[in-house]
Amino acid sequence: MDVLVIVRGLTAGLAATGAMTLLELPVRFRWGIEGLLDWQVNQRMASRILKRPVDAVLLPGLGLHFLHGLVLGVVFVLVLPLFPSGPLLWVSGPGYGIALFAITLAIHRPATGGSPWSRQLGSVAVTTSFLTHLAYGTVLALLVVWP
């Protein structure tokens, strides 16, 4: 396994998570974590790990958000060679983001105890999650192939 491939995945994952987080901030400032599915999951995970209330673990929850982005960046670069090169990359990055969005939907109820659509801001949270995961995958793919 090439160490540079892992480093590229980590770096691209970090930058893509940063871009995703910047896009999520307006929603966070307007509606709190209620408008962000992945933040709801990460906050709940941090709350369970640290045995503290959900509203007391903002930074640990954000840390989990970035940790997931780093790890998933590495997963992307390790899985990418299994597919043909070329234009597929422009599909695989956004497609990867959409797959991560689907995973977020699937784990939301077990992690938080509620359906993504059952909350007050269901459609806002689901739409934001879709768009920001799409952005994550797109930025990730662009950075992985950057010379």
Please describe the topology of this protein.
Blueprint: H1 3-31, H2 37-50, H3 58-79, H4 88-112, H5 122-145
Helix pairs in contact: 1-3, 1-5, 2-3, 2-4, 4-5
Could you describe the 3D structure shown?
- There is one protein chain.
- Helix 1 (3-31) packs across helix 3 (58-79), helix 1 (3-31) runs antiparallel to helix 5 and helix 2 (37-50) packs across helix 3 (58-79).
- The radius of gyration is 15 Å and the shape is globular.
- The model has no long low-confidence stretch (mean pLDDT 90).
- It is an all-alpha fold.
- The longest helix has 29 residues, at 3-31.
- The protein is built from five helices and no strands.
Question: Which labels suit this protein?
Answer:
about 150 residues, mainly alpha, about 80% helix, 5 helices
Report strand %.
under 5%
The rounded distance between the terminal residues' Cα atoms is 20 Å
What is the N-to-C order of secondary-structure elements (H for helix, E for strand)?
Answer: HHHHH
Q: Quick one: overall form?
A: globular
Largest sheet: none
Number of discrete domains: 1
Provide the residue-averaged pLDDT.
Answer: 90
Q: Given the helix and strand composition, which structural class is it? A: mainly alpha
Gyration radius from CA atoms, angstroms: 15 Å
Question: Which bin fits the share of residues in helices?
Answer: over 70%
* Sequence stretches where pLDDT stays below 50 over 5 or more residues: none
User: What's the tally of helices?
Assistant: 5
Count the beta strands: 0
